[in-house]
């Protein structure tokens, strides 16, 4: 199976540096739409056997732009972004100052953030969601091509699940409308590319 992930286009929260998890159903901003359309002009969705998308507005609109109406979008709640609980909507810069021990060396919330956001989702639970989704898709399309449109942290964890033993810290957050591709054969998963930007 080949599986390609696309991160959604920019939203106003992305632009302002705020944490945007599953609790905030933001739409793409104009820059996000322009970038998605420019990237989609260099992307052919016609040969994918299935397209899965997070049900959040920013992901669905990005998927619609990239697929150009060629494919049915299958919404799957397992592809929701990490739920950051009380951290959702907060300025990342503020969280870095308040909780430096919950931020990785690249300035992103790490697995320890949940010490301070008690109602947030654990990275372990995100890993369970990713594993459940991947196992089901692989069983349905073992020799197929699958497209997934989702979110930055979700895609980091999916990449970690596939090729890094679940260690999300091994991957940066992809750019808005960035792409990652994996090839999965006989129980071996390979990273083909990560954070490829088409426009």
The count of DSSP E runs of length 2 or more, i.e. the number of strands, is: 6
Return the CATH class: Alpha Beta
Q: What is the annotated CATH architecture? A: 3-Layer(aba) Sandwich
Radius of gyration: 16 Å
Helix content: 25-40%
User: Which structural category fits the helices and strands?
Assistant: alpha/beta
DSSP strand (E) fraction?
Answer: 15-25%
Q: Which sequence of SSEs, written as H and E, runs from N to C? A: EHHEHEHHEHEE
Number of domains: 1
CATH-derived topology: Rossmann fold
Count of DSSP helices? 6
Main β-sheet description: 6 strands, mixed
Mean of pLDDT: 97
Low-confidence stretches: none
InterPro entries: His_Pase_superF_clade-1, His_PPase_superfam, PGM_Phosphatase
Binding site for substrate: 7-14, 58, 81-84
Site (Transition state stabilizer): 151
Active site: 8, 81
Short descriptors:
single chain; 199 residues; alpha/beta; Rossmann fold; 6-stranded mixed sheet; 6 strands; 18% strand
Structural commentary:
The chain has 199 residues and is an alpha/beta fold. The chain has one domain: Rossmann fold, CATH 3.40.50.1240. The protein has 6 helices and 6 strands. The protein has helices at 12-16, 30-40, 57-67, 92-98, 123-140, 152-163, and strands spanning 2-7, 50-53, 73-75, 145-150, 179-185, 188-196. Strands 3-2-4-1-5-6 form a 6-stranded mixed sheet, sandwiched between helices. A hairpin with a 2-residue loop joins strand 5 (179-185) and strand 6. The protein is globular, with a radius of gyration of 16 Å. The two termini are 26 Å apart. The model has no long low-confidence stretch (mean pLDDT 97).
């Amino acid at each position: 199976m080949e599986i390609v992930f696309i991160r959604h286009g920019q939203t106003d929260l992305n632009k302002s540096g705020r944490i945007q998890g599953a609790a905030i159903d933001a739409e793409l901003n104009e820059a996000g739409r322009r970038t998605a359309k420019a990237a989609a002009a260099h992307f052919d969705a016609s040969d994918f056997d299935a397209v899965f998308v997070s049900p959040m507005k920013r992901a669905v609109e990005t998927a619609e732009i990239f697929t150009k109406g060629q494919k049915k979008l299958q919404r799957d709640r397992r592809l929701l972004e990490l739920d950051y609980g009380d951290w959702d909507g907060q300025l990342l810069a503020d969280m870095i100052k308040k909780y430096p021990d919950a931020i990785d060396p690249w300035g992103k919330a790490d697995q320890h953030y949940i010490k301070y956001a008690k109602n947030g989702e654990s990275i372990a639970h995100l890993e369970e969601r990713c594993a459940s989704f991947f196992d089901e898709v692989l069983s349905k399309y073992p020799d197929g091509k699958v497209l997934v449109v989702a979110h930055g942290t979700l895609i980091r964890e999916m990449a970690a699940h596939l090729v890094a033993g679940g260690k999300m810290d091994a991957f940066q957050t992809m750019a808005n409308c960035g792409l990652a591709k994996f090839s999965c054969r006989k129980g071996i998963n390979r990273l083909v590319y990560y954070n490829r930007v088409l426009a």
